From TrEMBL:
Protein task: Catalyzes the transfer of a formyl group from 10-formyltetrahydrofolate to 5-phospho-ribosyl-glycinamide (GAR), producing 5-phospho-ribosyl-N-formylglycinamide (FGAR) and tetrahydrofolate.
Name used for this protein in its record: Phosphoribosylglycinamide formyltransferase
Database matches in InterPro entries: Formyl_transf_N (IPR002376), Formyl_transf_N_sf (IPR036477), GART (IPR004607)
EC number: 2.1.2.2
Positions with a binding annotation for N(1)-(5-phospho-beta-D-ribosyl)glycinamide: G14, S15, N16
Sections of the chain in a coiled coil: none
Lineage: Bacteria, Pseudomonadati, Pseudomonadota, Alphaproteobacteria, Hyphomicrobiales
Active site: H111 (proton donor)
UniProt pathway: Purine metabolism; IMP biosynthesis via de novo pathway; N(2)-formyl-N(1)-(5-phospho-D-ribosyl)glycinamide from N(1)-(5-phospho-D-ribosyl)glycinamide (10-formyl THF route): step 1/1
Gene3D superfamilies in the cross-refs: Formyl transferase, N-terminal domain
Length: 196
């Protein structure tokens, strides 16, 4: 069976990107990482990708007058890499509705909360402020509405006494690095499909 072609979008260090790249180096993993794109020219994750022989592209969103114009460059880059699926790994940009819609059913994201709880920024602090006894991470399909796509896979992490947003985030991240590669494999194998 030929492996599906996956691109990863990052804005920073890309620790989830690294987890996906590491997973895809296993010969029996059903996907290969064919490119990494960043909206930050100095994103540390780009070096990790290059060190693993993966093509990279970096284009600043600040050089574009509109969200749509920047998204068109992302789309062109993905087309050049002949991508089947896209994984967002700390990509800190909101897409235009048209771009998100075009990739519905082929674009995944990971979010450090048990969606639909605590969408948006600082979800770990949101969990603490809400008095939650557990948090975790969610791999979900990307749709035009932020952090609102159907769930693919979740992992739960207990909130411990004395947790700060940082300590909780660290423990959630450990689960993210296991959950994201597992979720991508399930999607690529066709075990989980976009609803409808």
């Amino acid at each position: 069976m030929s492996r599906k072609r996956v691109a990863i979008l990052i804005s920073g260090r890309g620790s989830n990107m690294a987890a996906l790249i590491d997973a895809a180096e296993a010969p029996d993993y059903p996907a290969e990482i064919v490119g990494v794109f960043s909206n930050k020219l100095d994103a540390p994750g780009l070096d990790f990708a290059r060190d693993h022989g993966i093509p990279t592209a970096a284009v600043s969103h600040k050089d574009f007058a509109s969200r749509e114009a920047f998204d068109a460059v992302i789309d062109e880059t993905l087309a050049g890499w002949n991508v089947d699926y896209v994984c967002l790994a700390g990509f800190m940009r909101i897409f235009s509705a048209g771009f998100a819609q075009k990739w519905v059913g082929r674009m995944l994201n990971i979010h450090p909360s048990l969606l639909p709880l605590h969408k948006g920024l600082k979800p770990q602090q949101q969990a603490l402020d809400a008095g939650d006894v557990e948090s975790g991470c969610t791999v979900h399909w990307v749709i035009p509405d932020l952090d609102d796509g159907p769930t693919i896979l979740q992992a739960r992490v207990p909130v411990e006494l004395g947790d700060t947003a940082d300590t909780l985030a660290e423990r959630i991240l450990v689960e993210e690095h296991k959950t994201y590669p597992r979720a991508l494999a399930m999607v690529v194998r066709g075990e989980i499909r976009f609803p409808g």
